[in-house]
Amino acid sequence: MKALVTAEPQTAVVKDIPIPEPGPKEIRVRVHYVALNPIDSLLVANPTDKPGRVVGSDIAGVVEKVGSDVTDWKVGDRVAGLLQGATSGNPRPGGFAEYALLEHDLAIHIPSGVSLEEAATVPLCSLTAAQALFIRLELQAPFPNPFQHKATNEKHPTLLIYSAATSVGLFAIELAKLLRTPSGTPYRIFATASPRNHDKLLASGVEAVFDYKSSTWTEDLRKASGGVSYAVDCIAEDMTTAQISQTFGEGGGKIAVIRKSAWTKDGIRPDVEPIYSAVWWGLGHEIIYNGRMPARPDWREFTVAFYKFLSAGSPKDPSVFPISGNPVRLMPGGLERIVQDGFVLLGSGKVTERNVGAQAQGGKEWMRPISAEKLVYKLNALIGDDPAERRGTRRFSAHIVFTFTGSESLLFSTNVVTPMAPNPSVQRNTSAKLTVAIDIGTTYTAASYHISGNKNRSNLPMSSFQEVNKWPKQTFPDAKIPSVLYYDSTGSARLYGAETLDDTLLMDAEINIWEKAEWWKLRLRPEYLPAPSEFIFPSLPSAVTKVDTIFRDQFAYVIENVRSFFIKAYMNGEKYWRDLATNMDVVLTVPNGWEGRHQQRMRLAAIDAGLVAPSEGSRIKFVSEGEAAIHYCLDSVIVHSVAVGSPVIVCDAGGKSGTTDIGIYKVNSLLPIHLEEIASPQCFLGGGVFVNRDAETFIRGRLKGSKWWDTEECIQSAMKIFEQHIKRSFRGNEMRMHIKLDGVQESDAFRGIERGRLAISGEEMVEIFRPTVDLVKCGLKEVIQSWGKAIDQIFVVGGFAESEHVYHELKTMAGALGIPVSKPDGALSKAVTHGALSWYLGSGVQVRVARLHYGAETEMDFDPNDHEMAGQIKFQDALGRWRVRHAWSTIVKKVGNTSFGHTISATTGSSASLYQNYRLRTGSEHSMPFHRNFTEHESLEVEMELYAYRWDNPPKFFKDNGGHLVDGFIHLGTVQADLTKCYKASRFNTALSGQKYKTLEYDICLLFDEIELRARLRWKEKNSYVFGDATIAYDV
User: Fold this and answer.
1) CB atoms near residue 529 (< 10 Å)
2) Count of CB atoms within 10 A of residue 71's CB?
3) How crowded is residue 535: how many other Cβ atoms within 10 Å of its Cβ?
4) Any alpha helices (H) in 682-820, and if so which ranges?
5) Are residues 197 and 335 in the same domain?
6) Could you tell me if 722 and 655 are in contact, meaning their C-beta atoms sit under 8 angstroms apart?
7) Range in 369-378, 541-550, 807-816, 912-921 the model is least confident about
8) Count of other CB atoms within 10 angstroms of residue 430
């Protein structure tokens, strides 16, 4: 196996070493993700043993083998764990390898709702924080603690976490939020951090945050807290511990320090005691680290108890940890990149000297300074070992940012030279194909691309999908940008995406009176898709007359930045882009409820933006957000025991979209993926954007009449914090959340404002979420009840579902019905664009459900006894028959109540025939016959008006006697065709008048190509069908 091992001189290299065998009480883990800690690089730069030790502490993966005495783990279980890294004293290796060994009781069961990369951040630093609070500071643990401590008698105990944006600091906050006095009072939590992290920490539940670089921070904190009772020093170097001691109240107290000798003892108050211990004691083995450390069975017992606490999950929601993992920065590459990138960022000495390698790496975005996040690497999985790969060759790495070549012998230093990525055209098949997926959501936009080395879509290459995660004016790389634009008075777009968050550019917008366009996507929605009550759509900028213009401008901005991102990623990138862009395919995502008219308007906007040439509109493909999501779920690392033949639901609860899409599929095969849509998908307006609306209403109401009420900038700043921090971090069990308000640092007890921070109670937060959450739950219940049979599981994706509160609510609702709920492994923000690429490479949906009745006008004999014909205008045809127009003829029937293999209908006795009409196999055709006479010089261009009906049973007539469409009918467009070929293949007839004519019998066919509706002609020649072209001109 490959492993990162220590080497001379003071570096580490990737080498092949034997795969370890588990002992009787051990498990062998197939490592998928590793997370970096400062100790990892420290032990490489300052080795304590001879070369050849495996590096690394934090891992997450899947159990691959169990020891003979192990009964609490089985092969396939997801697991995270802590190893001792490159310390010495015993031969146990570290974890940065393809396989690692863990003692069975020192391993963490990963709850179903936690991704592997998040779980990798947990073992070491969460244990460090727990030891600090529940052993060194002797606080009461929320789990059985072998160290019995007397409960504090303080009425309002206070805790300071110094450098709270570090990994240990973030975990200390999470654990501190669980602290309670014997009377049930929570602890007051204070923190220090850089100003850029203050909003994040306030949103996480900290009462107040102070800038540790301020000369008065100790005095300010002591005044605000009244003097702290306990403290955790997450830096513990130079004067930090002494400064912290000055914040204690009378009587002093204890400081838990995480380092032994980097801090200065001078200046520490005599009544304040710094206490140090090493996390390694928790493993229960003797090691050499800061001297020889004896085995501590009692500390090992504590680790076992703490890891059991984590494994059990949250009491409110067992599918997640009781504490949140660290934010993840997924780094490019695997083991080979850890020394060259990760260790350079971590450094090998003081925290204050960290991040010096970023400039040496040429300003690469992944080399930005570390800030409130954990560096995580994905190890390359072997085919056959990944659960997704065991289902077939459909697993794609979604996390590799770029692939580099490099040498194993590069030293660990700040002068690393990173080779440019080679031009893939040298390595790849000359038939390389570029596909770009674009997801324009109501509030956020994302894009991903894929380069395939084979044009055969059924032969799925094992290549990575790359999200575009660097956009203009982003402070830090992010795969999402706001779907917001600013327009000037001439109708020209001036600001896009992250530019609309830049204070300097927003000042320009204000000075020049540029107008903001937001939530504009919802204006393209079907007219029958109602908005939530009391919701008012923002107006378009005055110089923009239609939403198609904004789609065009957004598409143009996105593709230009995809191009810019692409050419920077590769050597000779400009030429490589030109070579691939000439036949580039584009996949656009649409909500489930958007049909051909809306797809066509988006296609025209994309063509107008220059994505493809006007003559090549067919290179723009469409996939529903629901289908993209199910592909992402089944391509993810984890699919929780999906049984072949079982029905599954995918719920895409949009965080960046104003819509929620729910689909239900029968899984016919996993190798390869074959799916059958078994009920009409749901689409309704309801997502994170409407939580924002309700939050803004709440904030405006709370601030009304205060010092902050008259300042619109203050409201928008508060909403920015709510969107970026509060909404995402709310778990549902917090007592309160805080939003920092711009302006004065004053308090207003009546409005719940404390030192310029608005407090929102946990109950108020739940009420802000409730209307939208209830809407999503109602949609899921409708799908479940309409199916009426067992559901194997529900997959939840979408930005709104990233909220732990939302996820818990959905799990609780489904759990009451006996249905498990899970998330795919990986960032949900990528689900739609990555899923769209997976769909493009090989759509797994073979059968779909018609969500509308499709048909056209026909004529029928007049029946005076038919009350439905009352008022219809009758006419007499050439044969003297009385006829009526405006009658409805169904070409494709909408699905009714279905079950596997047949369709039940009250209007027919033949379920088998209806099954073919209701259930649409990809590529299937449905036709309407025509019989018409044409003279020699008559135009051969024909048209058929195409309509759709939304409800279950269409009436006999689609227009009333006034010629207006009956409620439920939609005019989609016109099918246009040329019968010249059919005419030439037919024989002349001669009328009694001597006029020559031809009788043409032909069908206009509707073809269901994926989710798009297409048309063509069909007629017979010599008993065989011949086909001709037809197009659908949609009402746009």
Assistant:
1) 15
2) 8
3) 14
4) 688-703, 712-721, 727-729, 762-787, 804-815
5) no
6) no
7) 912-921
8) 7
Give the per-residue pLDDT at 353. Answer: 52
Q: Are residues 104 and 133 in the same domain?
A: no
Contacts of 879 (CB under 8 A, 6+ apart): none
- Does this model's pTM top 0.70? My answer is no
Are 1001 and 1017 contacting, i.e. CB atoms less than 8 angstroms apart? no
Q: What is the DSSP letter of 792?
A: -
Domain that holds residue 870: 853-898+914-1033
Cα 603 to the center of its chain, rounded Å: 25
CATH number at residue 260: 3.40.50.720
Single out the residue in 341, 363, 378 at which a domain terminates: 378
SS3 readout for 696-730: HHHHHHHHCCCCCCCCHHHHHHHHHHHHHHHHHHC
Q: Which two tokens stand for residue 55?
A: 């590096």
Over pLDDT 70: what percentage of the chain?
86
Cα–Cα distances in Å, from 380 out to 21, 151, 463, 637?
Answer: 21, 48, 12, 12
Residue 875 lies in a domain: yes
DSSP single-letter state for residue 596? H
Query: Which tokens belong to 442?
Result: 């109501």
Nearest to 49 by CA among 15, 107, 88, 22: 88
Cβ–Cβ contacts within 10 Å for residue 362, how many? 10
The rounded distance, in Å, linking the Cα atoms of 392 and 276 is: 51
Whole-number Å distance between alpha carbons of 535 and 543: 23
- Among the ranges given (246-260, 870-884, 925-939), the one the predictor scored with the smallest mean pLDDT: 870-884
pLDDT in tens, 21-49: 999 999 999 999 999 998 888 888 888 77
How many CA within 13 A on the CB side of residue 204?
Answer: 28
561, 564, 565, 569 alpha-carbon torsion, rounded to 10°? 170
Indicate whether 751 pLDDT > 50. Answer: yes
Ordered DSSP codes for 131-147: HIIIIIS-PPPSS--SS
Do the domain assignments include residue 421?
no
Query: H helices of 861-978, where?
Result: 911-918
CATH number of the domain residue 76 falls in: 3.90.180.10
With left for phi above 0 and alpha for psi between -120 and 50, is residue 736 left, alpha or beta? beta
Verify that 22 and 72 share a domain, yes or no: yes
Distance of CA 902 to the CA centre of its chain: 35
CA dihedral 530, 534, 540, 545 (to 10 degrees): 50
Total number of residues shown for the chain: 1036
Q: What is the DSSP string of 235-247?
A: S--BTHHHHHHTT
Q: Report the domain count for the chain.
A: 5
- Residue 721 C-alpha from the chain's centroid: 20
493-496 and 485-487 beta bridge pairing? antiparallel
Please give the Cα distance from 431 to 935 (Å, whole number).
50
Determine the pLDDT at residue 200.
86
Choose among 833, 776, 784, 781: nearest CA to 808: 776
Q: Specify whether 79 is located in the same domain as 206.
A: no
Instruction: Give dist(CA 1033, CA 976) in Å, integer.
Output: 7
- Strand ranges for 36-77 from DSSP E: 58-66
Amino acid at 763: E
Residue 970 bridge partners (DSSP): 948
Residue that is written with structure tokens 């459900």 in the block: 849
Q: How far is residue 729 from each of residues 70, 208, 805, measured CA to CA in Å?
A: 37, 17, 9
Note whether 889 and 943 are same-domain residues.
yes
Interatomic CA distance for residues 109 and 33, integer angstroms: 15
- The closest alpha carbon to 391, from 633, 97, 115, belongs to 633
If you average pLDDT over residues 653-667, what whole number do you get?
79
Rg (CA), the chain: 32
* Crossing angle between the packed helical segments 831-841 and 625-635, to the nearest 10 degrees: 80
Which residue is associated with the tokens 């929320």? 142
